[in-house]
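>> received
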Amino acid sequence: MTDSAVPEPSPEPAHDPAYDRARLLEWMAANAIDQTTHDHPAVFRVEEGLELKAALPGAHTKNLFLKDKKGRLWLISAAQDTVIDLKRAHRAMGSDRLSFGNETLLWSTLGVRPGSVTALGLINDTDRRVTFVLDQRLWDADIVNFHPLTNTATTALSQNAFRRVLDALERQPIVVDFSAPD
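>> returned
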């Protein structure tokens, strides 16, 4: 039998992530991280939830799950109206050229589906495969809002609470001012 006749190995079976919304909120409570979670209809794109977000205080986010040409994974969390030009962002982040990561990779690393991408998904990235990039505007905001691993709710965190989440996860973001020129 030649190498070309060897069958391709089957992909690993899909596994459920360690954390879903309920377990994430339990983890926050166990770590004394104050949050307020608001349920709402599913929101898949930033533009869909503008009226909903107007009623919730704080900075609202858009989150991009990316892969660079070298295979490194990236999560960008930015203020919802921040313009992120992927043709230029890689220079500010210190990455190679960027493209969107696929759904299978998103599920296996952050435990979320498209439309639910969130910085809180880092709780499922136990292998530390994803490099976290945070918009300077979110780093400076008093309150930040993220999906709690599902796009049917929004979790509001004070800046102190958000930094406690990052500390508990032992994650240090690369903070980038996306509005700054190259």
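>> Residues 32 and 161 are 9 Å apart (CA to CA).
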